[in-house]
Amino acid sequence: MTAAAQRADEKWMRRSLALAARGGRAAWPNPKVGCVLVKNGRLLASSWHRRCGGPHAEPLALAKAGTRAKGATAYLTMEPCCAHPGKRTPPCANALVAARVARVVAAMKDPNPAVAGRGLALLKRAGIKTESGLLAQEAEALNKPFICRMRHKRPYVILKSALSLDGKAFARGGASRWITGPGARAAVHKLRARVDAVLVGVNTAIMDDPALTAHGLGPNPLAVVLDAHLRLPRRSRLLRGPRRPIIFTSSSRTLRNAEVVRVPSKAGLLNLKAVLAELAKRQCGLLLVEGGPTVHASFLAAGFVDEVYAFIAPKLLGAARDPNTAPRLAQPRLTRVGSDFLFYGRL
Questions:
Q1: Which are the catalytic amino acids?
Q2: What residues does 48 pair with on adjacent strands?
Q3: What pLDDT digit, counting tens, does each position of 19-48 carry?
Q4: DSSP helix/strand/coil, 69
Q5: Which one, out of 101, 194, 227, 251, has a CA that is 20 to 30 A from the CA of 56?
Q6: d(CA 163, CA 312)
Q7: Please, are residues 74 and 60 in contact by the beta-carbon 8 Å criterion?
């Protein structure tokens, strides 16, 4: 392949990726997929998967192109689906064969075990040239929750922590509101609007009494609490709000205004694999784990953390009882030192 042809392939695949991103949360639990049909260097038609249960990107684009699709190249952000048990829509690989496209370039293979290369194999048997792997990293980044659910049977987990400069998550006595400032808190609210659920341990739920909402910056995620002995007070904001939180516990007790889900526990710690499997069953793709320290340690020890957002406040909690009155560095500066970072400021 010439350099010019490779540049053209990348151009059209980037266009397909941009279209796929439009699917957003409406496409879930299906992956976000884009399709671009090109012939003789010109765009014929394009589309993306708009919503779960609706037509996929390929048949939408093929319908626009009509008979002109014969001999075209299809740029797909993911391998086209094929017939398999549980599939609710016609297989896209067959639609591409029926349209008599000449070539299919897929950014990545479908991680769904029911597909996993079978779609591309079907195209090859029909005499269609196939390629995969172009801009694969970008395509995988677009569908991290879907890939994680298919490969690991759990949501994609983002761990968020807020620490003082001396590495404390809470002040003496347990208070942790507010370690970080308004800007960092707004960033967390935006992050909540992007995820399907946000999880805290019962100690954090008791000490901070959080609402776990997006504070008007987007849709509110599902609230999840790990509470092995069902200690969450009835006056908790989570139990008085409009949403019914999910409380994972090993207790046989019940709790009003909440959905109580029982999972195994050991030494007072709930089985996180069972918790994540249950959330995956409920179509939770992105899970934000906000804490506290015991919950963070459990997720890290189990290997269930995919990304980390660590907010560091330029203040020293020391023996302070109130994070808001702890000494704060003036004119803080952050400098990279090799693979580490130096935080500098004056008191």
A1: 58
A2: 34
A3: 999 998 888 889 999 999 999 999 999 999
A4: helix
A5: 194
A6: 5
A7: no
Alpha-helix runs per DSSP H in 46-165? 57-65, 92-99, 118-125, 136-142, 144-152
Q: What is the pLDDT of residues 258-300, one digit of tens each?
A: 999 999 999 889 999 999 999 999 989 999 999 888 999 999 9
- 99-136 residues labelled b (16+ CB within 10 A) or e (exposed): bebebbbbbbbbbbeebbebbbebbeeeebebebebbe
Of 196, 188, 215, 217, nearest to 291 (Cα)? 188
Residues 70, 49, 33, 29: what is their CA dihedral angle, to the nearest 10 degrees?
-140
Residue with tokens 């707004």: 186
Please identify which residue in the block is written with the tokens 């094929």: 82
Could you tell me the two tokens for 29? 């639990």
Does residue 330 sit in helix, strand or coil? strand
pTM of the model: 0.87
Q: How would you classify the pairing of strands 265-266 and 269-270?
A: antiparallel
Q: What is the DSSP string of 281-305?
A: HTT--EEEEEE-HHHHHHHHHHT--
Nearest to 21 by CA among 64, 55, 50: 50
Secondary structure class of 132 (helix, strand, coil): strand
- β-pair partners for 225: 200, 247
Pick the residue with more confidence: 110 or 328?
110
List phi, psi (to 5°) of 72.
Answer: -85, 165
List alpha helices for the chain, DSSP H.
Answer: 3-21, 57-65, 92-99, 118-125, 136-142, 144-152, 182-194, 202-208, 237-240, 272-281, 293-302
Instruction: Report whether pLDDT(317) > 70.
Output: yes
Q: How confident is the model at residue 2, as a pLDDT?
A: 92
